[in-house]
Every structure is written in C-alpha cells, then in structure tokens.
Amino acid sequence: MKGAKGKRAAKRDTKDALKPVDDRKVGKRKAAVKADSKSKAKKGKAAKDPNKPKRPPSAFFVFLEEFRKTFKKDNPTVKAVSAVGKAGGERWKSMTAAEKAPYEAKAAKRKTEYQKVMSAYEKKQESVADDGDEESDRSKSEVDEESGQESEEEEDDDDE
DNA sequence: ACCATGATTGTTCAA
DNA sequence: TTGAACAATCATGGT
Fold it and tell me: Protein A31 CA to nucleic acid B4 C1', in Å?
C-alpha cells in the first residue's frame, strides 16, 4: 500500500498557531538532566542504562554534521555552537525536500538500526517495574549478539 | 578541573 | 495525541 504515505498521522493543519512548542528553550531540558547528573552523586535512582541507545541523528543533524565542517571552514573564527545551529537551521529551511531527501534517507536508515537496538533495550524495560533501590549487579545479561548484516535496499519514492 | 550551557530542528519515547 | 526531552558540537564560564 503505497497510498498510506500521503497521510503521516493526522496532519496538524487544524491550526499551527496551536503550537505551544515554538520557542522552547532547550536549555531547560538540561535542567532536568542536570538534576540527574548532579543529584546522581547521591543515589542513582535514575539508573544509568547501559543499553540505553542514543537517539539517531535526525536528517537535520546529519546535515548539520556536514554543515559544521563547511561552516567552520568558511568561518574558522566562529567558535559558538549556536552560530552553526542558527546558520544550519536557516539553511535547512532553505533547502527543498529534494535536497533534504538524501539526509532523510540516511536518517531513516539510522532509525532502522536504532529500532533494532531498541529491541534489546526493550528487554530491560521489561524489568523496570522493580522497586528495588539498588540493583545488585546481577550478572551481565547474556545478550546474544546475532549480527544481522542485511543488505540495504534503496527505494525511491517519488513524493511531493 | 569538570560539567553544564547555548542553539538549531527532528525524532523518538512515554503516558 | 501530545508533550517533553534529547541527539552533536565546542568553547567558555561557573563552582
């Protein structure tokens, strides 16, 4: 069913103005994490998940990685990460879907791999309900690493 | 000396 | 469905 591609998930065309997340200061998010990091000095209630896979870089980040090099190349004097972010964001929006396509494709692949890792991590979530304060080191979970090197398929979809 | 922050957008998870 | 947080980067500042 290729027709499903048209509908992502209820286009929020109802009203864009209803977006509370407009100028969200990401800085705040650190506050939460910070509390964890700093507080962690005491008790690691928020256990550190060794399996916790880091989120895959979105198309924007993929593009940013390359953009950073270029940006720094043109502006070797710029040292503020925010500078690249702003420039990248602006540039990103300037790009057309076709331009972002390659980045999205890569991001999509990243996501696929991430999902695989998530499967393993999911197991851990299974035993999350444990109230135990401290989790005694109960042996390392034996996770069979079955490398699944599957070929990669390129699919072109003409959208838009 | 070390960790947090700043700024971008996208994606992902959890309730 | 919605919200909230985090993904990289890198110099700098605050404790």
Answer: 9
